[in-house]
Specification:
nine-stranded mixed β-sheet; binds pyridoxal-5'-phosphate; 23% helix; 18 strands; single chain; six-stranded mixed beta barrel; 353 residues; alpha+beta
Length: 353
């Protein structure tokens, strides 16, 4: 891909790298490429970060034809810049776009655009443990037309945001509300894609849970309201009798890169991992009889998010509210590989030159 570089003459003052939060600050540059049905991709550029114009009739504003990705760049102790399994994000972006009837970006172009942008922005990558540069690729329908149809014009863009550890104190157990009436996705829908529409449908449940003092929602399957699917922005795993259970990739949950990496690490360390539908009743039963010893979410943003409390209907279950040993081991191992502190035996990291 031929990427034009448009220089930014007004570089920003960098924020305090110890107080970044998540997704609040953006770097000096962004990537943008247009796609037209008659010409394909054209005019790829890295340009100064800033607002873009929309026609009020732009299709994305009405029918939400939009997909995105999320991954991170890490700085190693010897100053190298590493991406983590970017080709997995590229492939997932392709499968999201296929489902939403949007053009596919080749794996090579996707990774190249990210690597070029991150290389230019390397001074924006915080180096403390748990900090990184969050990278957000996204595509949306840009054509101005109100008829419901696939757009003839899309924009594919990438923006970057320096972020700290999701939780200031490192790992901290979160309180999760089990949602038993609203649903996020059903098989046949868009649950397996990373699209804005899935999130639009989830905000009400999230707001309700927050109002009750919980940080995220645990979704049950959309048909029976019975089987555990995933948590807000994360896949979810449960340790029962020292065996790790997680929902299978059934078409309604998101195939997380972190989920896949954690399963690989667990199996490599001789843990038994079972991908099967686990009913909420079975889970509660195991919590009551003490066999459920750990629960945690997995996702790029928080990496591992231990669950301390699970509320289902009238019951609140305390999973001893500590960070369990498996959660801690997984966090240390994955962060270690991502930051280049632990040997990358699975060949997961990609060095940005
Ligand atoms: C992004 C996301 C995840 C986690 O995927 P990762 O690739 O591990 O970051 C899980 N669930 C949903 C709904 C997501 O959007």
């Amino acid at each position: 891909m031929d990427i034009k570089f448009i220089k930014n003459d007004h570089l920003k003052k960098k924020p305090d790298f110890n107080n970044l939060g998540f997704g609040k600050y953006f770097t000096d540059y962004m990537f943008m490429v247009d796609w037209y049905s008659d010409k394909g991709f054209c005019d790829a550029k890295i340009m100064p970060y800033g607002p873009i114009e929309f026609d009020p009739a732009a299709l994305v504003l009405h029918y939400a034809q939009e997909t995105f990705e999320g991954l991170k760049a890490y700085k190693t102790s010897d100053g190298k810049v590493l991406l983590f399994r970017p080709e997995m994000n590229a492939k997932r972006f392709q499968s999201s776009n296929e489902r939403l009837c949007m053009p596919k970006v080749s794996v090579d172009d996707f990774v190249e655009a990210i690597a070029k942008l991150v290389s230019i922005e390397r001074e924006w990558i915080p180096s403390t443990r748990g900090s990184s540069l969050y990278i957000r690729p996204f595509m949306f329908a840009y054509e101005a037309k109100l008829g419901v149809h696939a757009s003839n014009h899309y924009k594919f863009m990438i923006v970057c945001s320096p972020v700290n550890n999701y939780y200031k104190e490192g790992l901290k157990p979160v309180k999760i509300y089990v949602e038993d009436s609203l649903v996020r996705a059903v098989v046949g829908g868009t649950g397996f894609t990373k699209c804005g529409g899935n999130y639009a449908a989830s905000i009400l449940a999230q707001a309700n849970a927050e109002a009750l003092g919980f940080s995220q929602v645990l979704w049950l399957d959309g048909v029976n309201h019975k089987y555990v699917e995933e948590v807000g922005t994360m896949n979810v795993m449960f340790v029962i009798d020292n065996v790790i259970y997680t929902s299978p990739l059934n078409g309604s949950i998101l195939p997380g890169v972190t989920r896949d990496s954690i399963i690989t690490i667990l199996k490599d360390k001789d843990y038994k991992v079972i991908e099967r539908a686990l009913s909420i009743d079975e889970l509660i039963e195991n919590a009551k009889n003490g066999k459920l010893t750990e629960a945690f979410g997995t996702g790029t943003a928080a990496v591992i998010s231990p669950i301390g409390t699970l509320k289902y209907k009238n019951d609140v279950f305390f999973n001893n509210d500590n960070v369990g040993p498996i959660s801690q081991m997984l966090y240390d191992t994955l962060i270690g590989i991502q930051r280049g502190d632990i040997a990358d035996k699975f060949n997961w990291t990609y060095e940005v030159k």
